Amino acid sequence: MTKKEYMDLLSRALENMEPEVARDIMEDYEAHFERAKESGRSDEEVIEELGSIEEFKEELAAFMTGKTSSEKKNADAKGMEGNSKTEFGTETTESTADTLEADAPQTKEISREDSGEGNKGEQIRYQQQVEEELSRARNEMNRAYEEMNRAYEEMNRAKEEMERVAKETERAKKEQEQTGQEERTQRQHRTRAQNQDFDNIISGAKSIASTVLSQVSSAMDKAFSGLGDCFGNFEKSGEDMADYRRRQENAKSEAESYQREGTGQKENSSFQYSFSDDYDNMCDPNEEQYMPECSGIVTKEEGIRHIVVDSKSADVEIYPSKDLNFTYHYVNEGSAGSKIIYYCEKKVSQGTLTLNIVRNEKVSRKSHSSILGSVFEGNPDLRLTLYLPEWMEVLEVSGKSGDIKMQNTSIRTLMLKSMSGDVSLRQANADKCMTESMSGDVDIRDGIFDYVLAASKSGDANGFKIKAEKAAFKSMSGDAKIKESEFGEAVVSSMSGDAEGYNSRSRIISVSSMSGDAYVRELSAEDAKISSQSGDARAEAVKSERLLLTASSGDLEGKEISAKILKASVVSGDMSMRGHADQMSLSTGSGDVVVVQEGDTKASVNTRSGEIHFHLKNNGAGFASKVSSHGSTNYNYADLHLTDAANGIHRYGREGSSLEIKSTSGDITITD
Question: Do 563 and 543 meet the contact criterion of CB atoms below 8 Å apart?
């Protein structure tokens, strides 16, 4: 069987499912094929691993009906195989239907030959099945009725609390008339806090009522779907149509009577329910209820100054508060199954609010054990949005695979960490900022910090238009980069990626890479170090009082250098230095050295086996040189032309520069 044939069969098996769920399943299977192809496995191996479409249909039916494998075996023992249906009321899928169609003539012939006792026994079994479904429906309605009573009691408590708050408010008004302006202001604050408590109580009660009514509707749908399956089986078995219709009407009337009993309390009550938009956050996480979203608000008066977030796979977005309160909003726009598996949990302890995106293990273990289960559990599209007020002091966010984004926000202490997601800050300010990702990128732009750390293990670490007293941008196997930034002390480093700095200023700065390139351009610093172990090290348009350039096995290059003290060394690569240095010390093991010096200098240059070309452009001010080489030494400066000059000291003109040049086996050339 080819991949196309397999996917066509899967598509036909999902024809009667909800489009959203069917699309999620198809995309997950398609992704499974793609990942297998990347790892070198054939389509036949993947199909064998996934299993047949018939097995998939059995898992699908078991998943949607909530049956365990043991329940399925018991159902098979009772003769129900071949007639099962999903909760969606669809018939068995295509391949099973083909098998039934092939066996149909023989089955009908046997039915005609069966005795009356056989038909009677069949009807008794179906009657038992109907009674079981009715019993299940009663249990569902009883549970919903109990939940309705609980909600009604909660609303009564809310009503009593409202009356208490009203009395307290009236008393507060009388006291305000008898006290000064300061006392009146304080009591107004207390009254607003009490009203907020009352609003929370009412909101909670409304949410419970909304959830209960939703569960009532779900229970009725579930009860009638089961009854529909049973009556459909009666019709298939050849039962008398009149008996079938009579039992169908009786069952429907009985279910409707339970519905009226369950909702009667609401109809007779004078208190009218009003549904709130944030009802989803009141769902019980231990029940298979959708949890698509929830939200909450924290005021300054509550004393919470520390927020801790465990976002798991959710994306986190952080923005400034619009109403001076801390607000959070969680939403899941993923697959239907993920809305059951994931929910947001809130905890408050000692001035700290903790928000956790929780994966409901109890629900996920229920019947999600195969690749079908991974489809329903997977594809989560989770997002948590935070709105930070200025009075919030500490924010900690940690996640696994989601991105973390922060914009236009200020806070005292900021700690953001993601395992495989990206971390990005835009116009975010903090006294202390620590951002980290294992395999994602860390990107900070337009921020002001006392201390800032951006680190990634296999992603990039970038800083753009940053101001900080101390800063570190580090990556293990990705690139580390700064641009248009200003630091007191800064470190830009990468183990196996490139380390780069552009158009920045720093009192002290180090730009280094182990096996990648180190490159800076338009950098100004008192002390600067640019180094690479096995890559190239390059500096362009760098101004520094003390500049250090080092490389082990790569090349070393400097352009438009301006330094009081320049020190450069490379073990086995070439070196090229162009610019001006008051003093310079240059050395290489086996590479060539080219120096273009603008103005007078005091220089020491040496190489073991390479050549040295020293261009002294000091407007004819002359030099005093000390040379040593087993190769040839040549002078071509002003009107001094010497070929194969002897080792030793040579002087010319006013001796404006002092040169000490040595090559073990290479040639030396000094020109203007």
Answer: yes
CA-nearest of 621, 603, 622 to 613 is 603
Radius of gyration of the chain (CA): 39
Q: What is the pLDDT of residue 19?
A: 74
Predicted confidence at residue 202, as pLDDT, reads: 53
Distances (CA, A) of 340 to 21, 285, 537: 13, 8, 54
DSSP state of 258: H
Q: What is the DSSP string of 446-490?
A: EEEEEEEEEEESSS-EEEEEEEEEEEEEEESSS-EEEES-EEEEE
Considering only CA atoms, which of 312, 287, 307 is closest in space to residue 381? 312
Say what the pLDDT of residue 352 is.
Answer: 94
Give the amino acid at 32.
H
Q: Are strands 640-642 and 602-607 parallel, antiparallel or unpaired?
A: unpaired
What letters, b where the CB count within 10 A reaches 16 and e where it falls short, cover 211-243? Answer: bbbbbbeebbebbbbbbbbbbebbeeeebeeee
What is d(CA 33, CA 36) in angstroms, rounded to the nearest whole number?
5
* Range 125-148 burial, b when 16+ CB lie within 10 A, else e: ebeebbeebbeebeebbeebbebb
What is the Cα–Cα distance from 196 to 597, expressed in whole angstroms? Answer: 75
- Of 387, 391, 395, which is closest to residue 433 (Cα–Cα)? 395
Residue whose token pair is 């956050």: 281
The pair of three-digit structure tokens given for residue 231, joined into one six-digit string: 């009556």
Helix (H) or strand (E) holding 339: helix 336-341
For 282, which DSSP code? G
The two tokens of residue 431 are 């006294």
In this structure, what token pair is assigned to residue 191? 């009254």
Q: How far apart are CA 448 and CA 465, in angstroms?
A: 9
Give the phi and the psi of residue 46 in degrees, each rounded to 5: -65, -40
Average pLDDT by consecutive 10-residue portion of the chain (672 residues)? 84 77 78 79 82 79 53 42 38 38 39 45 62 67 68 73 76 68 59 58 55 49 45 42 52 51 41 34 44 86 94 92 93 78 87 88 50 51 93 94 94 94 95 94 96 94 96 94 96 94 96 94 96 94 96 93 96 94 94 94 93 94 93 92 90 93 92 94
Residues 6+ apart with CB under 8 A from 509: 487, 489, 490, 491, 492, 501, 523, 525, 527, 528, 529
Task: Tell the residue number behind the tokens 């248009």, with chain if given.
Answer: 484
- pTM, two decimal places: 0.58
Compute the C-alpha angle 401/407/413, nearest 5°.
80
Rounded alpha-carbon distances, angstroms, from residue 361 to 215, 372, 648:
22, 16, 83
Helix (H/G/I), strand (E/B), else coil: 94: helix
In angstroms, the CA 550 to CA 576 distance is 12
Q: How far apart are CA 33 and CA 42, in angstroms?
A: 9
Contact of 339 with 291, CB cutoff 8 Å: yes
Alpha helix positions (H), 368-407? 371-377
Query: What are the percentages of helix, strand and coil residues in the chain, rounded to 5?
Result: 40, 35, 25
Residue 149, φ and ψ in degrees, nearest 5: -65, -40
Any bridge partners for residue 407, and if so which? Answer: 426
pLDDT of 171: 77
Each as own residue / partner, the long-range contacts of residues 18-24 (CB below 8 Å, 24 or more positions apart, any chain) are 18/88, 18/336, 20/335, 20/336, 21/335, 21/336, 21/337, 21/376, 24/335, 24/336, 24/337, 24/375, 24/376, 24/378, 24/379
